[in-house]
């Protein structure tokens, strides 16, 4: 009997499709993204876990074979299955999958997890003995490439117009026109990027691959010195107070904004008490180590003083006196009175 799959509730809201088919995606889209963005978006995040283009394309081709042929979605193979298909190790498959996500050509819409007790019983009733759900991926075109608005695409979207074809007209004074966009707060950008890359952040935080879409909603927390730990602790507190948190929210940015609005006072950092407690424990540990070092130095000095006392004048006088006593007893024992007949 075939294995059953976990049905997801509308997880594809903000996820694009691929414009071609599996072969084009694996042989054109992925290598182009690798050459353009590997050094800037993958290598800094995975400094000690490099992945070659050859291995990446192998994993991409294997993933594409499991995806929906028309959209590139609903890709559900396990890492062990991909390792068997490609002949690579499971760790290499994991690195390649992370690289595909960072390059913007694949999205993990649901992270793999263990099945609940109810899900296992339901699976066993239909003959499926699996104990977990594999991650669900969507394979798509490069998120970071500006595509043509025409449905069929256009080569002009990928080319740079020559300078002679460009015209500029000065804006008339007092005329109506769009205002210049203000640059985002650097603190909000830094907080958003760190939160997206934090391992403790929920999977849906990495839906957009970069922190740019989160900048607006995290601008207030960033101004009050929040850290990724504060944001994750806020989400944990939200769940702990009885609120339901979907695995793949339909509008994650709006959900995070709602949680922040419910929190209210941004000056109260959710993880501030835990951080203060850990800092105090660290300071106390350092003070304990310092006391131990002082006690060890004092013990070394006392031991050295004791060793020096063994060769001092008092000890020398005692040794000479004992030697004299032993010599007198020896002489007395070997005299006429002690001689044998």
Automatic annotation (TrEMBL):
Q: Which domain of life is it from?
A: Bacteria
| Region annotation Disordered: where it falls in the sequence | 163-186
Protein name, UniProt field = Helix-turn-helix domain-containing protein
């Amino acid at each position: 009997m075939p294995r059953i799959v976990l049905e997801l509730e509308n997880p594809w809201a903000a996820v694009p499709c691929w414009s071609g088919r599996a072969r084009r995606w694996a042989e054109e889209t992925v290598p182009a993204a690798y050459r353009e963005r590997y050094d800037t978006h993958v290598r800094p995040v995975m400094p000690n876990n490099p992945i070659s283009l050859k291995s990446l394309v192998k994993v991409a081709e294997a993933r594409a074979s499991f995806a929906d042929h028309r959209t590139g979605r609903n890709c559900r193979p396990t890492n062990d299955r991909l390792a068997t298909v490609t002949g690579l190790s499971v760790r290499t498959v994991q690195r390649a999958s992370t690289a595909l996500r960072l390059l913007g050509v694949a999205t993990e819409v649901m992270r793999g997890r263990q099945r609940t007790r109810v899900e296992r019983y339901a699976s066993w009733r239909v003959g499926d003995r699996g104990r977990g759900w594999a991650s669900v991926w969507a394979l798509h075109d490069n998120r970071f490439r500006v595509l043509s608005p025409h449905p069929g695409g256009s080569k002009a979207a990928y080319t740079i117009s020559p300078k002679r074809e460009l015209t500029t007209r000065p804006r008339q004074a007092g005329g109506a026109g769009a205002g210049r966009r203000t640059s985002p707060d650097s603190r909000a950008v830094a907080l958003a990027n760190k939160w997206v890359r934090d391992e403790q952040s929920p999977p849906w935080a990495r839906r957009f691959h970069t922190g740019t879409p989160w900048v607006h909603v995290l601008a207030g927390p960033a101004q009050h010195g929040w850290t990724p730990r504060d944001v994750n602790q806020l989400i944990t507190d939200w769940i702990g107070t009885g609120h339901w948190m979907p695995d793949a929210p339909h509008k994650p940015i709006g959900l995070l904004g709602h949680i922040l609005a419910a929190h209210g006072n941004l000056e109260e950092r959710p993880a501030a008490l835990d951080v203060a407690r850990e800092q105090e424990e660290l300071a106390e540990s350092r003070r304990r180590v310092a006391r131990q070092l002082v006690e060890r130095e004092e013990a070394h000095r006392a031991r050295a003083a004791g060793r020096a006392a063994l060769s001092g004048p008092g000890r020398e006088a005692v040794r000479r006196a004992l030697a004299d006593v032993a010599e007198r007893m020896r002489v007395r024992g070997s005299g006429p009175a002690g001689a044998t007949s």
